[in-house]
Specification:
Strand order of the largest sheet: 2-3-4-7-6-5
Number of strands: 9
Shape: globular
Distance between the termini: 7 Å
CATH superfamily: Electron Transport, Fmn-binding Protein, Chain A
CATH architecture: Roll
CATH class: Mainly Beta
Radius of gyration: 21 Å
CATH topology: Pnp Oxidase, Chain A
Length: 232
Amino acid sequence: MTATTADAPAADAPASYTPTDRTTPTRKRARASYDKDLVHGILDTAYVCHLGFVRDGAPVVLPTLFARVDDRLYVHGSTGSRPLRAAGDGVESPGLPVCLTVTHVDGLVLARSAMHHSLNYRSVVVHGTAHQVTDPEELRTALDALVDHVVPGRSADSRPANAKELAATAVIRLDLDEVSAKVRAGGPNDDAEDLALPHWTGVVPVRTAYGTPVPADDLDPAVPLPAYLAAL
């Protein structure tokens, strides 16, 4: 999948995010990275994020769609959604403290011992305060980015949301400020005393594949398959 509609960073923009106490792992610190290109690449090739927040004193984590535009994330929801209502507009509301995560699984790591089984993965964790998007122009930009994040080029090839649909749709924004990536790659890390054990060991790659697009039953046969779908 290609990147979203996010623009290239300015020439003088920092190449890395600044580590904080919340973005510094307590284990496997060597796997952590604050490189912006790495973080953006992980975000831009994921479809679903998990949004965590506290509601009525209890933790809640919701899977939802998202998109990146520059150093800002937009998260889709309904106007009836509690977290989106709690986020407010950033004017009279302090916003909603959240933690957003994205994870790719790249391989199943099978070791000789059960203890050393693992996954190869790429993940991003974002901490911050989310605010509801209320500016009409920014809302349309965010919705276009959300559509294009799923299939690049799709927003220009579909009917834009009308006033009624916009009234029923909410988007929250989260600035990419307190961010970290974590990556595990490579083979198993067996103990020296286990190397002679007669168990298969190695990595089973995990990949995402796209199938042939299936047209809707009511699609006019004269409508061609768009180039952006053929490119998938």
